[in-house]
Amino acid sequence: MDVDRKFEYDGRTYQNGDVMHLTMHRFRTFQFVHKAIFTGTTINASYPVAVFSGNKCNRLGYLGTCSKLIEQIPPINRLDNSFIVPPTVGRQTCLVLETNVVYQIIDKQKLNGGVNLDNILSIRSVVIYYRTENSIWDSSNQYPSRFLGFSLYISNSTQRNKGHLCFHDTNYTVNTIPSVVTISCPVHGQYVIYYNERLDGTSYPAGYSEYAFNELCEVEVYGCPLPGFYGKSCDQPCPSNCRFCHIDTGICQSCKPGFQGYQCGVPCGVRNYGAFCSKHCGNCTYGERCHPVTGICTNGCDVGVYGSKCKTACPDGYHGRNCTEVCGHCDLCDRFTGKCTTHCYAGWKGVTCNEECDRFMYGLECKETCGECRNSKQCHHVDGKCSEGCAPGFAGSLCKTECDNGHYDKDCGEKCKNCRNETQCNHMNGSCLYGCKPGYMGDNCLQVQAVSDYQSSFHGVLAALCVCVLVNIVLGSILILYCKKIKRVQIQKTYEENGDSSKTNDIHVYESTGNGTNNRYEDVEDLSQPSNYEDMLSPL
User: Which phi and psi (to 5°) does residue 48 adopt?
Assistant: First the structure.
């Protein structure tokens, strides 16, 4: 606020430069009355309001007695958010006519003030009216010293340093500076900014005030009320694609968004758009040009981005053109290629995790082996289950468990039958591992054997036994004869060694049988003559 003295309100003391906050609800009215002078105080509201100002003692034209005067602060035909308290009649000789003058007091060393034109317009000149207090405007007046050293900027934003400096006072003195200053500044802008300062440690010319003050009565801005026109009457349109032109000559000073060049006839480059072609296009599909004015990609976005201007990266889980493709079966994938950057979910493989496990594998990274599914089918690629059931001889959710003893076939639902050992059959086809019970035949021992088959079997077994006995008798007899011959040869050799060869022709071999009590002799013929037995054994 801008006040000439301290005052108290609601238990707090306020002074020049302080800010007062007030909360009001709909249809509420706040009235503040004080002897302090609030001329130049800015009122800003978060919602549109109406503000009134006045004084209980005003004399119009200094005639008659004083009377109370209340008037609405412009604008009077609508609500607004920003106001400045004007002087009342009899207080000062200036009258605030500009409805959107906005001042900001930084401190006693710096002061900003300005006018918001609500649009970028062609400006020809600015007129500043300073406070005089109805006193003679000379060195005896305190206000000229406060006016000295000011600057005037025109900018497209509230930041004066980004605008155009129209004027900076370095020559005026308290005797030469006028109370009304007209400054020519044929430029374009939205904000007309008044600035003055008195910095510590800085030497200023003689006559300058100690502090910076905010005491403008009125700021008048002259120019064309609509952009895109020039001339004395502002009735001449600027050249095509020209946003702003010189207010007097019509020469293009700024192109419309999307164009560039001396005559603003060249569209922005492929990768640029907007005012001064200073904004960069996004990644339009197939590298197409974005709209030179809005920057919108009319045919959509290239891979990895989405949005009207194709500048927003795909969210997690999406990729491709306009980010319309969903990543494969993984948590994250490359937004340009769709290649998974994390592991595939169980049951999936490939760089994009869109290929199901195959070759009888399943599970995480396809490392698990399927069980025995019916008809040799692939198990489910995720959980390994067999959709059509298990192959004969296997059971369980994964068909990896063989049927236990005594069971076989689908889901191990069949029991072994007629096996010699009923718990020993093949777990797949039920064939008996150690043969059938008597009376049954076939691979699965399911065929009943007839009686004639029994008899044939018996006779066959009996004949086989007889043959075996006969063969054993013959072999035994041959063995006995062979042994006798060996014994006779040994006896003959003994006599020859003793020199009694005459006894070799007549040898009686004594054999003891039984328990040795009954003895008998057996005459042995001349050993020099081979017998029939020797002939029979000679091949041996």
Answer: -60, 135
CA dihedral (417, 421, 426, 431) positive or negative: negative
Predicted local distance difference test score (pLDDT) of residue 41: 78
Beta strands in 328-457 (DSSP E): 348-349, 355-356, 361-362, 368-369, 394-395, 401-402, 407-408, 414-415, 440-441, 447-448
The percentage of residues in the chain with a pLDDT greater than 70, rounded to a whole number, is 77
pLDDT at 224 (0 to 100)? 87
Q: Which residue has the tokens 């869109």?
A: 354
Per-residue CA distances from 316 to 325, 332, 351 (Å)? 11, 6, 17
* Closest CA relative to residue 115, chosen from 166, 81, 153, 86: 153
What pLDDT sits at residue 498? 62
How distant, in Å, are the alpha carbons of 11, 73, 196, 281, 429 from that of 42?
A: 22, 11, 18, 41, 101
Phi, psi of 474 (to 5 degrees): -60, -45
The single-letter DSSP state of residue 12 is E
Peptide bond into 75 cis (omega under 30): yes
Counts for the chain of helices (H) and strands (E), in that order: 3, 37
Give residue 363's region: left, alpha or beta (phi > 0; psi -120 to 50). Answer: left
Q: Which residues pair with 188 in a beta bridge?
A: 122
d(CA 535, CA 488): 15
Structure tokens at 43: 């009122």
Please answer whether residues 405 and 412 qualify as being in contact, where contact means their C-beta atoms are separated by less than 8 angstroms. Answer: no
Among residues 185, 31, 186, 158, the alpha carbon closest in space to that of 100 is found at: 158
| Side-chain-side CA neighbours of residue 189 (13 Å) | 29
Which H or E run contains 466? helix 451-498
Question: Which residues, in sequence order, are bridge partners of residue 222?
Answer: 125
For residue 67, the model assigns a pLDDT of 62
- DSSP, collapsed to helix, strand or coil, labels residue 399 as coil
With a cut of 50, list the residues of the chain below it in pLDDT: 61-64, 88-107, 503-529, 532-534, 536-540
User: Mind listing the pLDDT tens digit for each residue in 195-227?
Assistant: 998 888 899 999 999 888 778 888 888 888 888
CB 507 within 8 A of CB 492: yes
The secondary structure of residue 406, as a DSSP letter, is: T
Q: Return the half-sphere exposure (C-beta side, CA atoms, 13 A cut-off) of residue 6.
A: 5
As a whole number of angstroms, the distance between CA 158 and CA 153 comes to 10
User: What pLDDT was estimated at residue 119?
Assistant: 84
Q: Which residues contact 110 (CB under 8 A, 6 or more apart)?
A: 195, 196, 197, 199, 212
CB atoms within 10 A of CB 45: 15
**What pLDDT score was predicted for residue 84?**
64
The pLDDT of residue 167: 96
Closest CA to 108 of 16, 34, 183, 27: 16
Residue 314 and residue 323 in contact, taking contact as beta carbons nearer than 8 Å: yes
The label of the residue with tokens 């003030």 reads 113
Structure tokens given for 518: 């009954």
Count other C-beta atoms under 10 Å from residue 390's C-beta.
22
When computed from its CA atoms, the radius of gyration of the chain, rounded to whole angstroms, is: 62
Q: 């050293």: which residue's tokens? A: 149
